[in-house]
Every structure is written in structure tokens, then in C-alpha cells.
Amino acid sequence: MIARVVAGLVVVSVAGATAGPSHLPPPAGTISGKVTYTGTPPKMRPIDMAKEPACVTDHPTPVMTQDVVTGSANSVRYVVVYISGGDQGAPAATDTVRYDQKGCLYIPHVAVMQVHQPLEIFNDDPHSHNIHPLARVNPEWNKSQPKGAPPIRTAWDQPEFIPVKCNVHPWMHGYFAVLATSHFSMTDSTGEFSITGLPPGTYTVTAWHERFGTKSQEVTVAGSETKTANFVLTARPY
Amino acid sequence: MGRLFAVVVTLIALASATIFALHIWWLPPDISTHGARIDRQLNETMVVAGVLFVLGQLALAFFVWRFSTREGGPPRPSRAFPGGPTPLVVLATVLVGVEILVLTFVGSKVWADVYQTPPAPGALQIEVVGEQFAFYFRYAGADGKFGAMHPELMNDATQNFFGLDPANDTTARDDIVVGSLVIPVNQPVVLRLHAKDVNHSFYVPELRIQQDFVPGMVIPLHFTATKPGKYELVCTQLCGLGHYNMRAYVEVKTRPEFDQWLKERAAEL
Prior knowledge:
The structure holds two protein chains of two kinds.
Chain A (H helix, E strand, L loop, with lengths): L1 H18 L9 E11 L13 H6 L21 E6 L11 E6 L2 E3 L2 E5 L4 E5 L5 E5 L9 E3 L6 E3 L5 E7 L6 E7 L4 E3 L5 E7 L2 E9 L3 E9 L4 E3 L2 E5 L3
Parallel strand pairs in A: 1-16, 1-17, 3-6, 5-11
Antiparallel strand pairs in A: 1-13, 2-12, 2-14, 3-4, 6-9, 7-8, 7-10, 10-11, 14-15
Chain B lengths: L1 H20 L13 H33 L17 H31 L8 E8 L2 E6 L36 E3 L2 E4 L3 E8 L4 E5 L4 E5 L5 E6 L4 E6 L12 E7 L1 H13 L2
Parallel strand pairs in B: 1-5, 4-10
Antiparallel strand pairs in B: 1-2, 2-3, 5-8, 6-7, 9-10
């Protein structure tokens, strides 16, 4: 009798959890890890900004190119890690992504956003810029922003990794990583990333880097656990 | 009103001529071995054109003053030029034509002496790319050889402004690419100008050099700078939205300073 009651309680309890009473948050797992490289990465070089004296003044020590930024233990920065398969959908992000043109650099070097997510582009420099996202899937455009001009407000409709250049300062280079998923992360200076809020499921996780290409792996997340997924990208010196 | 116009024309003509004659707003001092010839030719052109300009404006002012009709006054009798206007027009056309022809022939010789002579043996070779909206310069590096240019590999994002292929072309690996033209003083220099996209122009007033970049052409240009310093290089062909900002600097250094600079750039590779 006691066993039946206990079994009944367990069944009720499990059924309740499955039905998902509204006051309980759904289980959310995390995928985190580190991105490193193998091989010899290209050497980054100082950017010569001599033609724009204000930007030279902004950088007492020359800025290095940012397409490959590595750290200790072969870590790689600016790698976009995102769910490319198995995404169960999520509300579109409504917070605005900020992208700055400052000191003749794009900050951040890579801006990650969701399709339709608001994007604001600022010119913080005392001179003009002409930002030119080299989109192929989305419409390509370029817009001038003189000193003190209001921010450009826009959004992208299709997922795409879009190289960004300035038509006035050829060394300025960045990326818009426009993703279909809301589950993404970008590696920091230690090469680490963390994708949170994942419902239980099996996912394809992809790491993208502008010079080292992409790598993917399958990861299954159950409950609120944190799974580790490390990536090793292949670097070439040229 | 006619007489006021005559006075204003005279004043404008004399003021303009004075500005040029006294070399107010003149070119900066010449720092090249060939510049003296250019300056002499420019002076001669300005004198010839200036004299004709002043004479023409004074003649205009004289006739306006002499034959203008006062408002409300009696009409002045008009007088025809002897023989009618045709001989005057022909004479003026011939005079101006001869002037332009003489200037062209004399000027062409000076131009050809600068632009169509071979560079001195042992001149420093530097490749130049003009693109919207910047100049880039390439030095051959330790091996003394330039890597081949592959336009399809040109990529501003990776700073590959010359389309080099260092993965497969070992001569390209030590090529030094910079955004300023750095040259040693008193050293003949040969530039080879490449346009990546549209026409641009290489203009350094102090060097008395102005030469277009033309897509599809490699245009050689040689000169010798005689005074250390930093000079502005500007594009003088309207090349697009950012043309106003297409510039670079020419840094003329002493030989030891130049060698040191080159060594530091090589160490960055």
C-alpha cells in the first residue's frame, strides 16, 4: 500500500514537471568551452594610420591588425560560437547592438547579433567615416557619417557573416555576425565562450573565425547541466 | 554703371597679377633635383599668360569706359573696328594660338626631361598602389625582389593591399608594405604606380611631381629628394566620395635613418 502511494506520488510529481507549471523555470543548460588553434597563425602587423592624424594621436602605440588575435595557450579571440542545428527557437532579441567607429577602428571587431535585431552604428571620431558592410545575402550598402552625425539605425534580415570596411580608411575592418539563433557567444581574450539558456536537446555547435574557418560538433544537453565543447581551429601562417 | 565696371575689372586684374607677381600663395619650396626646371617653366608661363591677361583686361576696361552709355543719357555713336570684326578675331586667335604652341613646345621639353628619361642606375625601387582612398607603398625586402601581384588576392581586411601570395611565392614574404612613402635624401627613387580601382593622382607639391594612376597601367615615376622632412602627398584626381581624404605622407630621411626604419619594418614581418 505504502509502495503504491509512493509510486503514485512519483508519477504525479513527474507528470507535474513534464506539464511544466508556469511558476517553475524550464531547465536551461549551458555549453561552454575554449577555442584554440593548432599550427602557425599569421603574424599581425601594426596598422599605419598616418593619413588620419587624429587617429594616430588616439593610439600612442600602434594598433595591430585584429583579424587574428591570439592569447596564452593558443587561445583565439573573436570566434563566434553558436547553435547551428537543433535550435528550438527563441524570441527575437530586441535589445540594440552597438557598433562604434573610434580611433579608426571598429569596436568590437566582431559584432554578433540576431536577424532583425536593432543595430546602431556610431561615429565617435572627429572626422568622417563611410561604413560599407560587404553583404552578399543581405542588401549591400554604404553610408557616410560625418563628425557628430547621428547613429545609423539598421538591422539585417538574413543570417550572414558580413565583412565590414570603411571606404575612407582602408585598414578599418570588422564583421557583423548575423545569426538565426539567439544562442550564441563570442570568445574573449582567453578564448573562452559560454552559450546559456539551452533547453534540453541535441545541438550542432559551430565555431566560426574569419581567418581560420568553421568547425562544428554535436552536443547533447540534458536538464540544467553545463557541457564542455572545445574547438581546435587550424591556423596557417599565410 | 559701365565706368564702375571698368574700374572693377581693372582692379581685379591688377590685384590678381600682383598676387602672382609677388609670389603670394606660391608653391612651397622645391625639394627635388629636377624642380628648378619646372619652376622656371612655370614662371615663364605665368609671365606670358599674365601679361596677356592684364593687357586683355585693361583693353576691356578701356573700351567699356570709353564707349559705355550713361543711363538716361544720349546714345554714343558706335564705331566699327577698321575692316570689320573679322580681322580682329583672326588676329587674336592667331596670337593666342602661337602663344599656346610655344608654351607647349617649350614646356614639353621640360616635362619630357623629367618624365621620359630613364632613372639613374641603382635607383631605389618602390611599388605604389592607389586605391579608394589611400596610398600604399611596397619595398622589396632583404631579397631585393618584389613578390608578384595577384589582383584577385587584394584584400584590405588582411592588409594585403598588393595582392601578394606569400603562401606560394617566397619572394613576397619579405616585402615591406606601409602607408607612408619613406625615402632616403639625395637617393634617386623610382616609383611604379598601380591603380586598384579608378584613376588617382600622385601629387607632392614640394617634389614638383604630379602623375596620374591609371587602372591597367603600371606608370614609372622617378625623382630625387634633396631635403629631409615630412611632406604631404595628395590625390588630385576626383576619385570618389572620400577623395578629399586620400592622402599620405612622404618622409625624406637621412640614409642612416632610412636604413634603420627599413630594418624596423622588416622586423615586424
